[in-house]
Amino acid sequence: MDCLEHMGPSVEESLACFLREFSVQHDRAVEFTRELLVRLDFPDLTDLRHGVVVGASDEESSIVGSHTFVLPDDERYSDYSDIVFSLSVRFAGRGVRVGISVEADLSVGRGKYPAGKHLLHRNETEPVVFEEALSRMALLTDELCACARLMADLGLVAR
Length: 159
Known about the structure:
The protein is an alpha+beta fold. 35% of the residues lie in helices and 36% in strands.
């Protein structure tokens, strides 16, 4: 990671390095999910939404990048299902946790899954030091992109 080689001792340099790396990994996930939208047989009018949410509480601060497929579930487009791929970084006094997840909130059954909320994949590091968290972001983004295989279990196959 180039960022670590140039990270200086200042808080500003460390924060700039973190934001650059998070942006790179978020952009990778954007491209990955866009490719899925083109490659897989999603229902007509499926939407893909990308977002970043920054949160803070007394216990931790976090930044989460999410990539959400919104699938219409009926002909009138009144019911929708969501499939969400996300990368999160959580800062707490005991260290930094980096995690990924793939979740589905289905209004109707799809593939092997009945209607309801499903955690399809999750991986989160134990608390690590800041520099380690930066390198883990890239590894976990690789793992998130490998989760494309889960889409077949939801009945979404290649066009």
